[in-house]
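Figure S4 source data
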Amino acid sequence: MFSSAALPLAFAASFLLVQVSAECTQFSTNGSTAATYDFYRFYDFRNIRDDIDGDAAAASSYGKSHTATESANGQSKIFQAAPWNSGWTARDWFRPSPKNDTIDMHYKPSRVSISNNTDISEEHSTYLTLHTTRLSDGSQLAAELDFAEYNVTFASIRMAARIHGASGAIAGFFTYHDDISESDIEIPTGGSADEVHYSNQPTTDPDTGVPIDGATFNVSMEARQPTSTWNNYRLDWVDGRSAWYMNGAQSADTEVNVPNRESMIIMSLWSNGGTFSGRMDIGQDAWFDVQWVELLFNTSSSATSDTSGTVCSVESSLGSPTPNASPCLRDLVTECIWWAIGMASTVSFMAFM
């Protein structure tokens, strides 16, 4: 009798939690830059091969397990057909060399694709790939994805990524308004895969070229996994402060040159042949692979101080925000449990009368 009496409560409690989860109105983070945001997006690239159109008008090899498909207008057909396409735009533009010691870059949508995972030890079957290569004419093919919101004001941006291939390019995940209002995660390709750059632009004095203290951090990976393996990266931009995390642990933070303008969110893989990126040899390639991207953000048009809704934490379950336990919710659940126990006891007592 007890189990039968408790069963409806189990359904009711389950329904309550589902309803609360579906009604998240704000989203919270943890750490030294803990904050609450109005919007949440999660883009999962780990098992989507069966959900997209992989037929190719033309195919070009990117190396082992990397393929791209292009339509007649040069767009990646896989990217065009993907269910997450509405959230991102693949850039198609030519960036001429600004200096004599740099090279031209061609950002092409076809450099963005979905790759099959050939490592049977990993659970995911696919991942997003950005690809760059040095062409025979000396220029560089590059890749960039721009998030649809162009008026982000404060954000926590996260990804699971690895970077591999030849030295001479930079994988970037960052917020951008202009060259003096930008916050970056930048990861060099190739080499010993043992360094990550965090920065708020500008990092040098525009008049003297002297580095600005607290504007940039070069974090060694010697005590961590190399960047050529999967790592979780996180950048938090809150009012007056930026912080960077890797695999759940904070790596750096600063109050210097924190962005104060509405911004874009960008992923890119590029090389201009300059001092910072380095320069690939002709025909060399590099890849920026991404399992998932998680974004929490406010916008200039919708920031709100309303705290009457349900705040959900993103820290306990990847891709599935869960309601923060409020005193009211705890009291409600406690009362329901004691009510169920009382009802079950009453039913059991009556059954033996």
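Figure S5 source data
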Amino acid sequence: MSSAPGTQATTTAATRGAAAVPVLIGAVAGLAWATALRGLMVQVAGPESTVEWGGTVGGILLPGLVAGALLGAAEHLRRTGHPHRGWLALAPLAFVVATPGVLVSVITDGGIGGGAIALPLLGIAGGWALGGRGPVAARVVAGALPVAGAVGWAVGAPAIAPALAVTTARGAWVAVLFAALLAVQSLGCAVPHRPAGGPLVPSARAAAVIGAVCGLAWAAGLRSLMVEIAEPGPSHVSWAGTFAGILLPGLVVGVLLGRAPHRRGPGRLRGGRGRSAVGVVAGAAAAGVVIAGGLGGGALAVVLCGLAGGYALAGSGRPAFRVAAGLLPVAVVVAWSVATAVVGLDEPGTGARGAWVAALLASHLAVLALACALPYRRHRAPLA
């Protein structure tokens, strides 16, 4: 009888831990999404773009982190069968709450700020369409809204700036980034609507599609980091370098890592194909470093950080090795923060632009590490 309180405390701690993990993963993913969105905004604003603490950190990054955490909490509630979780699909409205002035400027300033309202609403509509609940006709209409938004961007972007036309490599990349961010937001907003219990993604085919979308969004967001590194010098966006060298590999690796959980066999690890996919990218990056005499070392570092971080999060292997592997991406982010002044960004810890780019790098490395951990996870053992 005396052990009952201790057992209850242990159970409560385990329950809280189980809830904290998906919330943390959601927060990291939400931060990565928000940093990529800020990169999109830089391309829209052009050379006049300014990064401020209030507008960037308070109005974009923090709401993205909060929205992601809420959707992560929705996944925990879905797993445990909690009936009251649908309201968490409204998580993207955190962006509107963080910048309530857009509600006024849309009316008083001829529509300025409308994008800050439209983007969350499109994601919420897309999430309901993908959630699997409600009349089919209504869900089709809801799903058509983010699709129309992506098409509208591709058609109307040249009116913002001729360089954003989809007939140019830069414009096509920005259009892909916008569409992929919309799709990822819709996928996140679908989580609260999915059936309680069971796997979130039931089939390998659906996992492959989701992996492709997420991999494409990740790669397109990473391209924003490369643009910032090139500044204040010219950043050249080419069809081959951007699409064949960044976006396509991101899509392919996303497909293979997305399918990795569905390739696992009972009681053993069957992530060889997923790990091999990332290994191929690592080998290609390494070959590029050798051929170019060091150019492209950053690509190799990103891949190695993802592989090391994935192993650290795998839940198997010697703890000392996993800790050492997990320290690699941390060391890269710290080194980047120290070296930002060298590449022409703000001084470390003093400028909003440098903080945003550091958050962009750190969150994308963290998301890659989480994805690279999937092939190592045991059968039916969720990552979160």
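Residues 264-271 have pLDDT under 50 and may be disordered. Residues 201-384 form one domain.
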